[in-house]
Amino acid sequence: MAAAPPMEKYQRKLDKALRKLHSAEANDDAEDMLSLRMKVEKYERKLKQLSTKPDHKDEVVDKSGMSLLLFYAYVEPAWTPVRHKETLHWAEDLLNSLGVTGRLRVSREGFNGTLTGPYDGIRAFTDAMRERDNGYFAHMNNQDDFKITDNLPEGQAFPKLKVFAVTELVNYGLGVDNAPSVNKGGVHLEPKDYHKKLLEVRPSTVMNIA
Predict the structure, then answer these.
(1) 10 Å Cβ neighbour count for 198?
(2) Does the keyword Coiled coil apply (predicted)?
(3) pTM of the predicted model, to two decimals?
(4) pLDDT at res. 159
């Protein structure tokens, strides 16, 4: 039996990961959602690499199907409770007006979104995000920060929109006031040093980020 073409292979993997992500979102399983989002992003990157075409100014953009948007957007300092509530209502009203569905967590530290919608609706939302809070998110682009995958089957869209308040975007149990600064990252290790750290008797906190 002949192997499936690479595009078809990764599309199937993406479809499967999306179905599992929908289920994890419905069950509010934060741990599964995090790992599945990483898988979805991995397969999206692979599909984009395989489908990259030369840039033609007159090329017609294919807006068929639905678009998927995955993103985190942190703010520092954290919003006040009043600003948090205002932002929650702003996002919900805007997404409803654009025909976008899915789940958007809004905490005082920012946004965590898994959204589906029309090509133009998704981009209208990311454009509005870049203008929000006097351009605080203006640096975020539609490739690396707002991760968008287009032309997916309509049936993979979330059936409805849920925008809701949470204490933390990712549940570490620290709370907004005790969370470390998003501007203080860790130290990158080369593979050899990474494995040395894992073998320490009292190892440091080591994370493998693909």
Answers:
(1) 12
(2) yes
(3) 0.67
(4) 93
CATH of 66-169, one of 3.40.50.2300, 3.40.50.150, 3.30.1330.40, 3.30.70.100: 3.30.70.100
**What letter represents residue 87's amino acid?**
T
Dihedral sign for Cα 89, 25, 180, 69, please: negative
Q: 182 pLDDT band (50/70/90 cuts)?
A: very low
pLDDT at 112 over 70: yes
Following DSSP, what letter does each residue of 55-92 receive, concatenated? --TTPPP---SEEEEEEEEE-SSPPPHHHHHHHHHHHH
**DSSP 3-state of 112:** strand
Residue carrying the six token digits 């049936």: 155
Smallest CA-to-CA distance from 39 within 49, 47, 29 is with 47
Element (H, E) at 107: strand 101-107
Residues 67-95: pLDDT tens digits? 999 999 999 999 999 999 999 999 999 99
Please state whether beta strands 161-165 and 101-107 pair in parallel, antiparallel, or not at all (unpaired).
Answer: parallel
CA distance 181 to 98: 33
d(CA 63, CA 53): 16
* The pLDDT of residue 172: 52
Task: Find where tokens 């907004």 sit.
Answer: 176
Q: Which residue has the tokens 């351009």?
A: 135
